[in-house]
Design brief:
about 220 residues; alpha/beta; five-stranded parallel sheet; binds cytidine-5'-monophosphate
């Protein structure tokens, strides 16, 4: 890459694959501004639900998407798996994705403050939002490992078997919807590096990713 050029790192992958944690660590390490793009879709889903609407209603989702602002992304209630399911429903609508494309590309092109570049994590960053990204990572793990991580995150040590099964089923449904939708489906970009976190701890994954990014910048 040219001297002075801002870097863009695209991190895509399914829910609870570890991509968010990896993106946060890389952002600190390389002094990059971070955008968790899942929060955009979650905020749309949350806004529709909190107004008593149905996230499968395109008009309601569109109205919510058009009002999304940076402040909506800090809502702590966005994390739950039920909001993840609503996000996945609104995210399957091309009109909603279109509204959120500009927000993401503007962020990628304009790292705030003195940042050296940006890192965006999501589903379609390397394929659709920033196909020109400096480095693309596709982070995945088997679905049971991902369900266990999300289960511990939501319920700690007190969760029940029933709650685990419910999270596992939610993740499977979400994966299927995200992979099979026609608009910007979840898929590995041709030039993305595959990182499987099923059997690796986050430090090992982080070190491997630092090496990869350093070799490209
Ligand atoms: O990554 P996270 O679990 O927060 O994403 C929530 C949902 O938002 C995903 O299941 C997916 O349907 C949608 N999403 C998307 N494109 C992105 C980020 C998230 O479709 N770039």
């Amino acid at each position: 890459m040219l001297a002075g050029e801002k870097i863009i790192i695209a991190v895509d992958g399914p829910a609870a694959s570890g991509k968010g944690t990896l993106a946060r660590k890389l952002a600190v390490h390389f002094n990059l501004a971070l955008l968790d793009t899942g929060k955009l879709y979650r905020a749309v889903g949350w806004n529709v639900l909190s107004a008593g609407g149905n996230p499968e209603n395109e008009n309601a989702a569109l109205e919510a998407a058009q009002k999304i602002a940076k402040a909506d992304l800090t809502n702590p209630e966005l994390r739950s798996e039920s909001i993840g399911a609503a996000a996945s429903k609104v995210a399957s609508m091309p009109a909603i994705r279109q509204v959120l494309v500009d927000f993401q590309r503007h962020f990628a092109a304009n790292p705030p403050g003195d940042k050296f570049g940006t890192i965006l994590d999501g589903r379609d960053i390397g394929t659709v939002i920033c196909p020109e990204a400096t480095v693309k990572l596709f982070v995945t793990a088997d679905v049971k490992t991902r369900a266990k991580r999300r289960f511990i995150e939501e319920f700690g040590e007190k969760g029940t078997e029933e709650q685990y099964i419910s999270i596992l089923n939610d993740l499977k449904t979400r994966d299927e919807r995200d992979i099979n939708r026609s608009a910007s489906p979840l898929k590995q970009a041709e030039n993305a590096y595959l990182i499987d976190t099923s059997d690796s701890d986050i430090e090992a994954v982080f070190e491997a990713a630092v090496k990869l990014v350093s070799s490209k910048t």
